[in-house]
Amino acid sequence: MSYGTSVLGLGSYLPEDVYNNFYFEQYVETTDEWIRTRTGIRERRFVRDGMATSDIATLAAQEALKKSNLKADEIDLIIVATATPDRLFPSTACTVQEKLRAKKAAAFDISAGCSGFIYALACASQFIENGLFQRALVIGAETLSKFIDMKDRTTCVLMGDGAGAMVLERTDGESQLLSFYLGADGTGGQYLELPAGGSHLPASLETVEKKLHYIKMDGSLVFKWAVEKMVLSGLEATRRAGLDLKEIDWLLPHQANIRIIQSVASRLGFPMEKVLLSLETIGNTSAASIPLTLSQSLREGKIKDGDLLLLLGFGAGFTWGGAVLRWSGGKNERE
Ligand SMILES: CC(C)(COP(=O)(O)OP(=O)(O)OC[C@H]1O[C@@H](n2cnc3c(N)ncnc32)[C@H](O)[C@@H]1OP(=O)(O)O)[C@@H](O)C(=O)NCCC(=O)NCCS
To answer: Which one of the listed residues 94, 123, 156, 254 is annotated catalytic?
Structure first.
């Protein structure tokens, strides 16, 4: 018996507090004009003190469950993709499991940076399609604001907080997830990292003084890799789905920088009208960017039943990935 994966519903959560580009002028030498033209970002949301990744992941998950008409104890598996977990351990997914009271669910995190949601989706669909689990909750959630150095203009203006969740269910019919392609190259690890706090460099007074518990990035190097690997992921995922790029209705790339997205779209032959975007108002939300952009585009009524979506990710690791999704309903999304 072979099974497929269907998408039941989506949920999202964005913090209430909005920070526009002018906010950063008090901390670093930057301008709204530089940020808008070099990144495409106008504003982003940050969580308030006391709110952790598991809190916003749980809020997104609750909405996804509601839209899927399911109770938390009907979920068999929770995967949280995040680069900003609550703690090194236990996993954020276990904390979400507790908060949701999803008593039946196995739970674990995936660490694949901004590609995390695609990695998590691929992983959950394998469990579902081999028959081990019937329903999974896949969440991308980040509180990047807690890990940015407000004195580092090359990173602080880029990031935003948010969470997106998707409920998947086993089906006897055709899978909505038509293909996956995943890749990684650890030689890129040093160019986008959070250096201290792990076993390699445990937290100490010195690591804090040197600000090694904040995100460090070589932006222009990451930029070039992101373009190259998202293009590769797009070509591979489409080929594996047995499709031609011309048949894809929507390109849904990770939202890091509008110039990265334009470059990827142009190389894959997509006009910008066929690209789904959210970064102008939410910034780079890492593993949350794909489900957040999908939710927003569904609310805007852009995506129709039967549309083919090409999801692309690139992030710390380096990691990258692509997936082809045939949209079909969710139960709910345009309500
Ligand atoms: C970070 C990023 C916006 C920088 O844009 P860029 O065109 O590559 O710019 P560069 O890094 O070459 O920097 C150009 C200049 O702008 C400066 N600059 C960087 N950030 C700035 C800011 N916020 N405001 C003003 N100037 C800034 C740099 O210091 C540099 O100045 P210099 O020439 O005097 O040294 C871009 O590389 C990027 O988006 N990279 C990917 C980032 C990302 O989101 N990664 C996460 C995972 S995918």
So the answer is: 254
